[in-house]
Amino acid sequence: MPIVTVKLLEGRSDDQKRQLVEKVTDAVVETTNASPEKVSVIIEEMSPSHFGTGGKRVSDS
Amino acid sequence: MPIVTVKLLEGRSDDQKRQLVEKVTDAVVETTNASPEKVSVIIEEMSPSHFGTGGKRVSDS
Amino acid sequence: MPIVTVKLLEGRSDDQKRQLVEKVTDAVVETTNASPEKVSVIIEEMSPSHFGTGGKRVSDS
Amino acid sequence: MPIVTVKLLEGRSDDQKRQLVEKVTDAVVETTNASPEKVSVIIEEMSPSHFGTGGKRVSDS
Amino acid sequence: MPIVTVKLLEGRSDDQKRQLVEKVTDAVVETTNASPEKVSVIIEEMSPSHFGTGGKRVSDS
Amino acid sequence: MPIVTVKLLEGRSDDQKRQLVEKVTDAVVETTNASPEKVSVIIEEMSPSHFGTGGKRVSDS
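Structure tokens for the assembled complex are given below, as produced in the milestone run.
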């Protein structure tokens, strides 16, 4: 039942996202003993104008 | 104050989303005794290339 | 694949939570045509000192 | 390490979002003593057809 | 309708959390023109054994 | 800036959680080219009475 959400800035290729889902699933299976088919991974992309650290958005840096 | 988030694959019609918000609210009100006007429902759609189970994205199946 | 998260104030009985998961699942299945076994529901309880509206926490009201 | 997520209806200007990230960060720093550079803020916009209160979506009101 | 979630390490006092909810609400109202009574703030505390950066949990540092 | 949240049923050992944070971070770094120190991982445990699939909670199975 593990449900993994990965929030990251937009800009990764489709191939990177495919591998991200695959490798994160492997990491969860290996360390928690969950069955692979029970692991879900959700990618949520953020726009540079919708994310900031230290009070400053990426789009303003 | 219940806040409900429904993450699901994109592709539902506007009418289905309208009913989803209505029926989920009813279910929460009925089972928790919250007042309807205190229940919020958020729909978050996922692209098939941003969701996977068992390490494989929906877009790769 | 719908994943539903319900955030609500702590204090519901175990029976209410059981029915909440059941009825919310029914509502999602009925309106989105998802298979029941693909619908997951997560309940996240909030303490009155960890939730506020209008700038005032429930525990301070 | 505070991570703040602000979900709100779409429609704010870029300048409002810039200030939102700045002012929310200030509020978190002032009240928790976190270092500013450790505070992240994520803005998540909701469409009026994806958010409802009392069982009715904003787009249906 | 803004819904704000603040995830932070456990250890803040009740008074700090009270002020956090108040000041973050003020910041959202000031920058988005939302009415205060429409702004909700949720605090979610994380244990040092449940949060890490750079692959290392706070509890292991 | 990737922020990863892993929701899973309670019951893993402290050592499993330590490795989970480490290996998931490695998987994100490897596939997205993010610097390790920019990757945060949050573990959120769910009680069997707060999670269900197919309308039935784990605690009722």
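The longest helix of chain B spans residues 14-32. The beta strands of chain B are 3-9, 40-46, 51-53, 56-57. Further analysis is deferred to the final report.
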